[in-house]
Amino acid sequence: MKGTSLPSRTRYIDLNRQCLVHLSDLSLDEQATFSYATLSYVWGSRSSLRLLEGNIDKFRHGGLGPDTDKLPTTIRDAMILVQEIGIHYIWVDALCIIQDSRHDWEATAPLMDAVYGNSTLNICAASGSGSIAGISGSPLTPRAASQAVADVCGMRMTVVKSVESRIENTHWNTRAWTFQERIVSQRSVIFVDERLFFQCSRATWSEDVHCETGENIWSLEMVDSPMQNFSKNPVRQYADLVELYTPRKVTVPSDRLVAFEGIASVLSFPLSSTMIYGLPNSYFEWALLWENKEAGVRGQGRDRYSDSLFPSWSWCGWEGGAMWRLSTVSGTLINLHDWLSNHSWVAWYYGDGGNLKLVWEPSSQGVQSQSRWSGYDSSSTDPYGRDQQRLASRFGVDESRPTMPTVEPVNCCLHFWSYTAHFQLSRRSMSSPTFKSNLEKGLHRFGILDSKGDWCGTIVLNEKWSSSVGGVFEFVAISEARDFSMEELDVWNYYVAEERHISEWYLYYALLVTRNEEAMVSERAGLAKIYKNAFQSASFDPGMTWSEIILG
Q1: Per the omega criterion (within 30 degrees of 0), is the bond before 542 cis?
Q2: pLDDT for residue 295
Q3: Domains of the chain, residue spans
C-alpha cells in the first residue's frame, strides 16, 4: 500500500454485484482481502453517464456494470479487463465522486495519491481523445497490431519504438490529472493504439519486447519515462516533475493546483516539506527561482478555500510550463544547504485564512544530519537556520531594520521585508552568438540597465515585454546569486572588473514586480540576476530602499 490510507466511506464499483459500495459495507473477511483497480482516462467533450445526487441511491442497489446503458466504451472496457484479471472492484472518478456535489469533490480530490497509490493496478487508456474511444485491444475495442520487421544483411530484425515515443503524443499524455494518476500509481498498464505496456517505478515492460530476466533492472524502455525521476535526489525529483506537469492542460483552471496535490504528497516526505501553493517550504527560496518555460501568462485558477487567484509567486499562478533554468540556478546547486542558510536574509510569511504564518518553522524533531542537498537548518533557533550576526554584517539586517510584517495578512500573499531598487529594461545582450540562450518560442532574454546606462543584469520574459523596453521597473532582491553563466554574460563588463576579484557572491536574485498604484499588493513578472553594487549605488530614484512587500 502506498500513500495515505483511504476513508472507509470511499466509493468503489463492485463488479460482481454491479453496484457502488463503501469499504465499510463489506464483511471483515472481504475487507481483509480487498483490492481494487483504478482507471486513468480522458473524459472528452461528450456527456456520458456520471454519478449524481439524483442517481446515487439507484447505483447503490445495482445497474452499474459493463452492460449499463450510456456508459462510455472506455469504462466498459476497463470493467471487463479488470474482471478478467481477477480483480472485483474498480474506482472510476466519474462514477465514484458525486459530480454535482462540490462537497464530495473537495473531500475526494485531495486523496488522489491514496486512491491511485493504493490500487492494485492502474488501467491507463491512452488511446483516443475521449471516453467513447474505448481501450485498444480490449474485448469491445479490437485492434490491428502489427510488428514491423526489416531485412538487414540477411537477418530479420524487429523494429521497435520506445515506450515514451508511443505515449508522448497521445491526448491522454497532455492532461494534468492523468499525469498525476500515472506518477502516484504503484503499477500501471498503459494501452496505446497498437501496444500495451506495463510500468512501475523500477521497470517498464513492452508486449513486443522479450526480456530474458524478471529482475527489476533499468532498460531502454525507461528512457524519458517520468517514473525514473524517483531514482534522483528529492530536489531534482521535484523540479523535474514540476517541469513535466506544468505544460499539461486542465479543463477547470482551479484544478491546476489540486491536480498536483497527489504528486506533492509523494514528494513531501523525501523533501521534509509541506507544499505551499506547489512550492516546498523547506526549500522555499530555491523553489522561488522557477521561471516560465514558455510564453506563459497569468492564469485564472483560484484557490478553492479563499477564492483568491493563485499567487503570481508560484508556478501554479501562471499558464504553461515552468522550470528551474540551469543557467540561472547552477550556483546554488554547489551546496544548496549552505546557500539556503548563508546567502539570504528574508523572513518569509504568508497569509492563510486571515492569519499570518511563517513559511518555514524549525522542526520539533531535533537535530538532523545535513548534506549539500538539505533544506533549511531545522536545529537553528532562527526560523530559516541563519546566523544573526552574519545577517547584520553581510546584509545589514539587524534590529534597525524591521523583518516582521506590519499590515493585515492577505490570503495567498507572501509578506516580507527586503531591498528594492529600480532599473531600466533593455534589449541589450551581453552574450556572443556562441553562447546565445536557446530559449523557447515566445521568450526573450532582456538586459537590465542602471541609472548610468550600464548593463547590470538579465531577465527572461515573454517577448511581449518588448513594448516596455526603456521603462523603469521595480526589482525586489530575495537572495545572493553566485555568478552569471556564459549565456547570460560572456564579455567584459564594468561591474565584473570592479567586483569579481572581491567576492564570488556579487549578484542578487531579484523579482521584477508590478503593482497597481491603488493597491498595496504586488505581482511577480519574472526572475532577474542583478549586480549587488548596482542595487546599492546605481538604482533609479528613489534608490535602494528597505521595503515591506506584499506579493500576490
Answers
A1: yes
A2: 87
A3: 11-223, 279-551
